[in-house]
Amino acid sequence: VNSNKMTAIVQEDNELKKLLGNPAKNAGEDNLMGPPQSTNVPRPSTSQNVNPQSMISPMTPANSTKEVIEPCLQNVVSTVNLGIELPLMYINTRTRNSEYNPARFTGLIMRIRNPRATALIFHSGKLVCTGARCEEDSYLATRKFARIIQKLGFGIQNIVATCDLKFPIKLENLNHIHGQFSSYEPELYPGLIYRMVSPRVVLLIFVNGKIVLT
């Protein structure tokens, strides 16, 4: 009996040694995940040198059309010196579409419809034309405002206007091409004097692009 007990004990010890010697197998039998055999993460084979960028399919960029931005004139302002002092209250009572409130504004405001423009007329004879959409309309409106004032009995002998071309002018070349109409002596006067025949207008042209018409 003792020998049978000893044999059973030896067998149990052998079974325990087997179980302790192979824990992963025991965990697999109990449907439990055992500890990983290695911490290395499997990676794709790099036996062939493949450029990863070659695996990206090229994309055709969308047709990008550049929008051309064109400036649009919204307002042209011109100034005129009528050369005489004006009684603004008298002009206001004798003309239509005009308003004069010296408590709010020192100038008289006059409007015309064709071309659509507004004039700011001051006692000194200065006239500012605003609201025109192009230079031609501004020039025509200025002459109409001056004509309205002239019809009231004010003898306007001369009109002086100014404009700015916003770009420099080569006065030497202009004088060389239009020598029969112009005179340019920078030692005596910095501007070029240009005399037009029709209409009879004298222009004082400066190198910075500013012009005085008289």
From TrEMBL:
It is found in: Nucleus. InterPro entries: TBP, TBP_CS, TBP_dom_sf, TBP_eukaryotic. This is TATA-box-binding protein. Keywords: DNA-binding, Nucleus, Transcription, Transcription regulation. Transmembrane segments: none annotated. Residues 21-55 are annotated as: Disordered. Belongs to the TBP family. Residues 36-55 have a biased composition (Polar residues). It comes from the Eukaryota. One of its GO terms (cellular component) is nucleus. GO terms for molecular function: DNA binding.
